[in-house]
Amino acid sequence: MTFLRIRNTHKRKYVLICLCIVGFLSYRYLGLSPMRPRMSRTVGLSANSSQFTLERLPFRILGGSIHYFRVPRAYWRDRLMKMKSCGINTLTTYVPWSLHQPERGVFNFHTQLDLEAYLNLAAELGLWVILRPGPYISAELDLGGLPSWLLRDRSMKLRTTHRGFTEAVNIFFDKLIPKVVPLQFKKGGPIIAVQVENEYGSFAKDQSYMIFIKEALQSRGISELLLTSDNHNTLKSGGVDGAMRTVKLQKLNQKDLQELMAIQPNSPTMVMDYWTSLYDVWGDLHHVLPPEDMISTVREILRRGMSVNLYMFHGGTSFGFMSGALSNPTYMALVPSHDFDAPLSEAGDYTPKYHLLRDLLSRYSGGETFPDMPALRYREAYEPAIMYHHLSLWDALSFTEGPFKSVKPVTMEHLPVNNKNGQSYGYTMYETSISSGGLLKSGDNVRDRALVFLDKAFIGLFKRNSLELAVPDGQGRRTLSLLVENCGRVHQGRDLNKQHKGLIGDILLNNAPLRDFTIYSLDMKPSFIDSLYQAPWKTLPENPGFPAFFMGRLFAYGYPSDTFVRLPGWEKGVVFINGLNLGRYWSIGPQQALYLPGPFLNSGINQVIVFEEQEGDYKVHFEDMPDLGMAADIQ
Predict the structure, then answer these.
(1) Fewest C-beta in 10 Å: which of 211, 302, 311, 477?
(2) What's the rounded Cα separation, in Å, for the pair 187 and 258?
C-alpha cells in the first residue's frame, strides 16, 4: 500500500489516521444514514422477509407525513428538524400534480414547489424519504391533486387508461421523475421507496391502470421498493404485482391485519397512513383524536413489530383555494387549516401528542439519543388593520381576463382563460338580461354556491340544496347576475369526472332557460390581485356595497412573526396579504382564524385585501393564538 512507501514516521501515522477516518465514515454510511456521499449502493429497502431490511440491515420505518406545499419554504427546516427530534426516521410526502403543472405545458418546480430542495434537505437532516408521486394523491386537495384542465376533455375518464389521461400523465412524469431518480437510495439519495398511485382499491375502475402507473415509474428510472396503499376494506382491489401492499387505518383491527397478511404472507406489515386525527369541513366541528388514543394505537403497532407512518405528523395549511371537499353523504368543503390535530400543530407548535410520541419512540431507538427539540418561534398579536379603501366587485370586473360571451352557461373548466386551460379555482360571474320577474330555478346546476343579484342588488342565494328563488317584478330590461363560487372539488370517491364547477347546466326563469351570458373569470390569482392596485378604489363609505374588496394595512416592525387573522363581524370571503391568498374565511366555522406565517410579511407596511361577499366589520384582527373552533372527539 502507498503508506508503506512513506519513510517519515509522522507522515505514516498521519496517513494511517486519515485512512481510519475514511474507513469509519464508509462503515457508517453503509449503515443507516441518508447523508452518505453519492456513491452506488447495491441493495435498497427490501421486503423479502417478515421484517424490512435496508442495505441488508434490519430496518423499521418510523414515518411521518409533512407536505412541502403546505409549509412555507422558510419553515421546511424547522418542521423537519422537529420531526427528527421526535424520533421519526422517514419523511413521506405527496407530489401535487395540480400545483406543479397548473396549465398544459407549464411546469413549476421552483421556490415553494422545489421538490428536489425539499428532499435534499431531508437527507441533510438524516431523514429517509418515501415519495408518493401520484398522479392522483387525494391529500385533501381539490380534485385529489389532479389538474382541473383535464376536465376540459368531455370524454375524460380520470384514473384509468383512457388515452387523454395516460398521455397527460406521461407528460407530467417526463418532467417529474427525472428530478427524483438521482435522489434514490441506490444512487446515494434519501428515497427508499416510492408509492404507486394512492388508494386505488376504493376506485378500481380499470384493471390495467395500476400496471400502467407502475411501468410509467419504472421505465423512467424508479428502481427502489414500490408500495401501494389502501384502506383496510379495499386491499384486494388496490394492489399491483411487484409492489408491496400497505394499509391505512385509525383503529387497529386484528381482522384487517390478518387480511393483509393473508394477501401478502412472508412480508413486513406496514400501516402506511395511521391517521393522527381528521380534516375539518365548513359548518362542522373541529375534529380531534385524544392523545392517549393515538399513542395506544401506535404503541400496539410497534409492539407487533410493524412499521408505521403518521398521517399527518405536521399538517400545515391549504393556502389559497387548495382545499378539497367531500361528496358523501352530502357535499362539504374543507377549511384552509390542515392542522389535522397532528403531533406538530399548524403553526409548528409541540402538542401533547408530540411529547407522548417522542417518549414512546425513544424506547425503540436502540439507545440512540434524539436531537434537542428546536425552540418555538415567537408569535405576535399585531394592531388591527383598519380597512380604509373600498372597491365594488363590479368595478373590479374590468381587471379580469375577458369578459366572454356565450349563449349558454359555460363551466369554469371550459372558459377560454389561462391560455385556454380554463379556470381552476375561485369565482365566476354570469350575467344576463331579463324582462320579467318570476321563479328562478337552479335545477341543481350551481357548483357550488351562487349569490344572485338583480341590477347589482342581492336577492338570494343558491346552494346545492336550495333550488328555487323568487325574482321581483320590474319594468324594462334588467341585469341578473350570479356570482358562482367553486368551494372545492371532491378529493376522493368514484365521481371525479363530474367535478366541473360554475354553472354546469341551465338556470330556468319561469321554466325557460336563461340565455346570452356575459361571463367573467374571477380566479383571484396573484396577477389579478396585483392588477387591482390600479383599480378605482374609493375611500370607505359609511354604507359600502357588497360584494366588494376592502384594503387596509398591517404594520409589522422588526423581524415579522407568525400571527393569526381573525375577522369578527365579517361573513364570508377571502384574505390576501401582500397579494398572497391565505384562504377562505366563513363565519359558520369551525375555523375562526387563518394562519399567517411571518415569512409572508414584510418589515414595515403590509397590504391587506379582503374580498367579502355580504357583510363586513371593516377591521381585520391579528392574534397570537389559533382558533380552529369548537372541538369534537373522533368516535
Answers:
(1) 477
(2) 36
Domain range 40-362, its CATH number among 3.40.50.300, 3.20.20.60, 3.20.20.80, 3.40.630.30? 3.20.20.80
Tell me which residue has cell 393483509. 260
- Residue 632 identity: A
Angle at 631 between CA 252 and CA 350, to 5 degrees: 75
Q: In residues, how long is the chain?
A: 635
pTM of full prediction above 0.70: yes
Peptide bond into 329 cis (omega under 30): yes
Pair 245, 239: CB distance under 8 Å:
yes
Q: Please, what's the largest Cα pairwise distance for the chain?
A: 110
pLDDT in the model for residue 37: 53
Shortest CA distance to 393 belongs to which of 451, 467, 310?
451
- Interior CA angle at 462 toward 460 and 463, to 5°? 140
- Those residues of the chain that have pLDDT short of 50 are 1-31
The span from the CA of 230 to the CA of 210, in Å, is 13
Residue type, 556: A
Q: What is the pLDDT of residues 452-467, one digit of tens each?
A: 999 999 999 999 877 8
End-to-end CA distance of the chain: 68
For 126-162, write each residue's pLDDT tens digit: 999 999 999 999 999 999 999 999 999 999 999 999 9
Q: CATH number for 540-633: choose from 2.60.120.260, 1.10.10.60, 3.40.50.970, 3.40.50.150.
A: 2.60.120.260
CA distance 10 to 348: 52
Rounded Cα distance between 490 and 412, Å, is 15
| DSSP classification of residue 171 | H
Q: What is the pLDDT of residue 29?
A: 31
Cα distances (Å, whole numbers) of residue 393 to 289, 455, 532, 542: 41, 13, 11, 17
What architecture is domain 392-523? Sandwich (2.60)
Question: Distance of CA 223 to CAs 181, 215, 399, Å?
Answer: 8, 11, 49
Dihedral angle sign, alpha carbons of residues 444, 445, 447, 453: negative
Residue linked to cell 367573467:
520
> Whose grid coordinates read 384574505?
575
d(CA 273, CA 311): 5
Written in H, E and C, the secondary structure of 427-441 is EEEEEEEECCCEEEE
Q: Cα 260 from chain centroid? A: 28
The side-by-side arrangement of strands in the sheet containing 45-46 is 45-46, 53-54, 57-58
How far apart, in whole angstroms, are the C-alpha atoms of residue 315 and residue 286?
14
